[in-house]
Amino acid sequence: VGSKKQGRPGQTFDRMLGFLKKPVVVTAEINLSLVALTVVGLMSRLWGLSYPRAVVFDEVYYGQFVSLYMKRIFFVDDSGPPLGHMLLALGGYLGGFDGNFLWNRIGAEYSTNVPVCSLRFLPALAGALCIPLAYQILVELRFSHCAALGAALLILLENSLITQSRFMLLESILIFFILLAVLSYLKFYNLQRHRVKYMGLFTYMLLLVIAGLHFWHMLGDQNLSNVSLVCHFLARGLTLLIIPVATYLSFFYVHLTLLYRSGPHDQIMTSAFQASLEGGLARITQGQPLEVAYGSQITLRNVLGKPMQCWLHSHTNTYPIRYENGRGSSHQQQVTCYPFKDVNNWWIVKDPGMQQLVVSNPPRPVRHGHIVQLVHGITTRYLNTHDVAAPLSPHSQEVSCYIDYNISMPAQNLWRVEIVNRESDTDVWKTILSEVRFVHVNTSAVLKLSGASLPEWGYRQLEVVGEKLSKGYHQSMVWNVEEHRYGKSQEQKEREVELHSPTRMDISKNLSFMAKFTELQWKILTLKNEDTEHKYSSSALDWITMDTNIAYWLHPTSGAQIHLLGNVCTWASANVAAVVYTCLSLWYLIRRRRKIYDIPEDAWQLWVSAGQICVGGWVVNYLPFFLMEKTLFLYHYLPALTFQILLIPIVLQHLSDHLCRYSDQIIDGIWIKL
């Protein structure tokens, strides 16, 4: 017994030695065909990437944003979320680009400080990786190796995709992430099945619909318990909602963290957003008093920011006694909205019950619902409106600064402050942060920017009116205090000197990330650049037949050119495949309605799944362009084309596996009868 007890540890030790004596072997399956295709794809996208060493088409557009990233300067681009721009900037960063290049002309030669290969590398890499992604998507759809190989070859050889991916452009990056999103969901779905995705937005919505359909079918599966169904639902919610939203927010967080300096696009953002950036407005507003009080000296910016940012303004000039159309005016002092910083933009918040124009000690803050008078700082006349038609908006009231002509037109200069974004009815009016409406006490008209440009007598400044129909509110009726100081001078001459001097107070304000994200996202969605006709612009209908092209670059001396053109055979085949798929699907649906099943059930499900991905991907990436009011180019069609290309081998395999075999069976039957 004793010897056995002593032998057990020894036996264990011998086993350990035996394990160490054997080599550790790791086996792996390598698809050499896919590796070869990927290598060839990398060569086709990366070879000679620095040629031409000149600005190619939209590189003149995206390069500006790369330079702004390098200099940490804030910008807004309405083309979509910032991920693509950040990836282009990452290429510039890795190449040591300092952002110093003037992106002002297509064909301009790059200076020596511009790392051309580095800037073009990531789009080229993304374009090359679309080849194995196409292969894997067809594999996950349970099509054959030949069909998957055919899809990868078609993506590899499509020259429009090659051309687009070899330059500092975003389409190849967009297509890569669209295909990656589709593949990720297919792998997730197949994993779940075995165990029991701006234009990218449209693909994401498609995946949500497909996931919903899949889960709907699961609800009818009696083999799945309630707990299992809940787990499936939570898994889909996590992978398709929570993780994507968190990832999307992280892109904006990095974007806003990097771009902390004031830049050329600040003016379209709110005063609060501008004040959060280093330089620019922040240099003026930093340390201003937070709470607006009686006696405060303020400038009022209209929140709408259209047709341009502007501030409530007045000057000594008066409205003409009679306008060109024959209507008369009050001949009072003009009130406008002026798109530039000016001393005539300053107003003093006055208590109607007191004469002083300085802030008391302690200050008496103005709250929501309080009645105030707004005194023009330089001319000391009161903001006024009355039942006189505005110069360009006759259905609205004229807004003026009151001049007493000793006629039967009394001053009507009382305004009620309404804080639109208040949290309670006792909120204090705050600098920059509060968005306010001014409601005229006598007529209930709301101070509003009409947006119309006044004639020469108004110096082409923007018209301000009293809007009598004030149900609800529009941003044109909302104002915020941008610059603010506590007035200290009661005498007019001293006050004018005070109005010309900068503020120096000691209070700071910062916006939260979510507030900045919400505002920036809304600007991206609503910002409309002026659409101009371009010699290479096209309509969505032109893309299907490839009845258009784009000249990307022309060598100034040799005449060498780069054009964005599609492969005629591929585009025609893709169109035929889409038509065949649609016709066959309608045929099958009609026949199945009559209980005639031409193909097995598993083949039908495979056919439907392929259509959901490929036809659905083409539809959601193509049809929205018919609703868009923007200048369109051929490259906008490339994401939709990619899905259509994937459909070619799918249709060919289906025809080979079923219709050709079915025809052979019919012929064999005829021969037997003969």
TrEMBL record:
Entry membrane topology: Multi-pass membrane protein
Catalytic activity: a di-trans,poly-cis-dolichyl beta-D-mannosyl phosphate + L-seryl-[protein] = 3-O-(alpha-D-mannosyl)-L-seryl-[protein] + a di-trans,poly-cis-dolichyl phosphate + H(+); a di-trans,poly-cis-dolichyl beta-D-mannosyl phosphate + L-threonyl-[protein] = 3-O-(alpha-D-mannosyl)-L-threonyl-[protein] + a di-trans,poly-cis-dolichyl phosphate + H(+)
Domain of life: Eukaryota
Keywords of the record: Endoplasmic reticulum, Glycosyltransferase, Membrane, Repeat, Transferase, Transmembrane, Transmembrane helix
Top-level EC class: transferase
Gene3D superfamilies documented for this protein: 2.80.10.50
Subcellular localization(s) per the UniProt record: Endoplasmic reticulum membrane
Annotated GO CC locations: endoplasmic reticulum membrane
Recorded family membership: Belongs to the glycosyltransferase 39 family.
Name assigned to this protein: Protein O-mannosyl-transferase 1
Source organism of the structure: Phasianus colchicus (Common pheasant)
